Amino acid sequence: MELINGKTYWPTTFQPTRIYPVLEENLTCDCLIVGGGMAGALSAKLLTDRGIQTILIDKREIGHGSSMANTGLLQYTNDKTLTSCIQTFGEQTGVRFYELCRDAMQQLAEIAQKLEIDPWFVPRTSLYCASDEDDVVMLEEEYRNLKHYGFDVELWNEDKIRSVFPFSKRAALYTSGDAEVNPYRLVHSLIDSASNQGAKVFAHTAMTHCDYNEDGVVCYTPQGTIRAKHVIFSTGYETQEIKNDRGAYLKSTYAIATKPLKDLSSWYEQCMIWETARPYLYMRTTPDGRIIAGGLDEERPREDQRSIKAAHKGDILLQQIAEYFPLSELEVDYAWEAVFGSTHDGLPLIGPHPDYPHSYFVEGYGGNGTVYSMIGARLITELIATGTKNPDLDLFSLTRTSKPSPV
């Protein structure tokens, strides 16, 4: 599966990267991680922090899957609102999901502070704007629910928004505790740290197939094998090529990075901005003065149309930025299209699967993929290290039904 089409910005911010070898021998370990993106990198870091003997393989270069297309907005809020989560899953489950996302944000901040390679992790606020009049009531209800359950949020009216931004919306939720990150640098920093702690990392090493035995898994690659007590599949959207999740679906999304801008002083707090429309526009800034924007999700185009779509959608995204920030120097520098996965019920897929013994999956489907990867890496590392399953894993079961729990 070709995950990305177009020219992405992040690899230009970190060169040269560490070179990892191809596996050319037979090895054993406690835990094998298949996939060197965000979920695999976080898992490798947490496992090695616990002293668990770990091997990580990736069929590409490290960080050259979906993480290279990630736009690096980290939030505890989700595409599916807390109100909607409560209506779908019931109060206890809906609130717990949001609590886990908030906790994951704090854990990401703690990890980022200790990494030797700066991942450009910067605490930010977020502004969730009502796209039209009909969404104001929805935002007001969401505000009441977030406040009731202890989340840090403010409800801004039109005058407040206009007082600090060059645009206005009828209403918006202003949240704290969010962050921006350079996902490419974060992945490399995490795997570099894990490698320095003893993890063995191999690039350009594809898993051809696995044998599932009573005492573990044997993973076969073109030039070697790995015997592991446990396997974590962190293969992102390509997991659908290993097993088909009926609750998941794949689409295309689009993003751009502008050329550096001289003056972003009109952008209050460099606050991350997104909106209630679906598909929605979202925007953030970068340390070198660029604007990154994304959205316009749609059904996946034909392969021969992907590059044309990336350029066309990039122009539309630039126009949408200008509606918020009418800056004369706005110009697209990087534009890309990428495969994007979601689930029908809005929750990621994390945990074991009955058809794959000794194996765990971290499928961070949705707009909060890095946050979900943090949740998955923590829960699965805890299970491998202690042998005890955290009840929170049940929220993300790969075999869950889509039927809502009673409210």
Automatic annotation (TrEMBL):
Gene3D superfamilies: D-Amino Acid Oxidase, subunit A, domain 2, FAD/NAD(P)-binding domain. GO terms for cellular component: cytoplasm. It comes from Paenibacillus amylolyticus. This is Glycine/D-amino acid oxidase-like deaminating enzyme. Residues 30-383 form the FAD dependent oxidoreductase domain. InterPro entries: FAD-dep_OxRdtase (IPR006076), FAD/NAD-bd_sf (IPR036188). It comes from the Bacteria. PANTHER family: PUTATIBE OXIDOREDUCTASE, SARCOSINE DEHYDROGENASE-RELATED. It holds the Pfam family DAO.
